[in-house]
Write the structure tokens for this entry.
Amino acid sequence: MNKQCFLTVVLFFSFLVNILSVSAGNPASEKIFEGKPVINAPQITGNYPSTPFIFYIPTSGQRPMEWSVDKLPKGLKLNPETGIISGTIASKGDYTVTLKAKNALGTCEQKMIIRIGDELLLTPPMGWNSWNTFGRHLTEELVLQTADAMIANGMRDLGYSFINIDDFWQLPERGSDGHLQIDKTKFPRGIKYVADYLHERGFKLGIYSDAADKTCGGVCGSYGYEEVDAKDFASWGVDLLKYDYCNAPAGRVEAMNRYAKMGKALRATDRSIVFSICEWGQREPWKWAKEVGGHLWRVSGDIGDVWNREANQMGGLRGILNILEINAPLNEYAGPAGWNDPDMLVVGIGGKSMSIGSESEGCTQEQYKSHFGLWCMMASPLLCGNDVRNMNDSTLQILLDKDLIAINQDMLGKQAERSIRADYYDVWVKPLADGRKAVACFNRTNSPQVVELNTQTVEDLSLNQVYSLDTRTTVDTTKGIIVKLAPYQCKIYICGEAKKK
Ligand code: GLA
């Protein structure tokens, strides 16, 4: 073959490969929109009385889809075409509804308790936060595009509902009218416009401030203006506040006071606003965060897009493995309406971060998979931090793992306990509401490991029925299971028989 002919053949093949990969789209997303309806809602959701309730019924399956709800309490209405339930309920209590979805291929239903009371976040929050990838470079356009992408790629249909704006939405100085000033170069139509856009699509909006004069990024914080700011957040339609602790005094009592002030101010508004406490675990917030109105609390400094790294003396970023160690002994403190927060996910960032990038090199696919699996086991918030507008299929496959998400969202709300910490591997156990147990075998090292799962190694383990999330099949278990783990791999099993309802 002469040179020109060879080049033509190469060009033709690369053209073909390109065409094929574009038309293949994202198989993981495509799967979400195929087949009969499957409702992926949590078993329970909470809201305060007489405050707006907004809930999209996450449902996979072919479109068009039509929704209905049985026993919807007075005050709420469903839009059957969008699957969004909205309204307000004045009286406290548990309202059990039956969510139903129907498409051309079939129907599906699922029971869900709407608990109207004093608690929010009865299962861990799921969503996205701007910080880990975009840092200070966030804009209205980014947030709206993120919402659109989460609809198109299927994330919304697996339960990701919060879209959280982190630091740098505000200007450095408070306005002469005493209010925080929105950076109009980034959010030209204001925050309310963004909130309305998100609510119309069944999402919730999170925002960020700090318990001092300035935030970590040096823009204006809320200290001394808690009531004013909480009212503004509520009037814009905010559903979550992440409240940081940069530039504030070190002591625990002062921190508790500052958080309590904001907690009280949020509770006094006419919205159900989740309060996310972010003082990096320095004052053991797991012991007091609920008392000051918190629904989740960071247990450590910031996560990096890195597998194993201790924070440096300047308080630099920590690896996934290192944060896991911090969160492991705190399982007793987590539960419905109050979660340990080992920080946002770094799945899929791949070293491309504008905020946590300087010290981070990215992780391997296996490491990201284990990160996600372990955060699910630990009932941790699942707040993605990657650019969800541009994800490859392997990242999507991790984030759209319905079985793992179900473990994370289980209504018993237990954080997995690490029942074995051997030299090279861990075994984690998370009891589930239906009496079964999720068991994770995790290889912490870069060489293969073998773990034996049986009733001697794990107490009270029922092996009469075991489902492997690795193979998505039932495993033959008469003599226990020999689990072979590749470097950094985490294999998760659901063990035992589900109690009859
Ligand atoms: C702190 C928090 C991060 C992020 C930044 C924003 O470091 O821990 O999660 O919110 O501030 O400046």
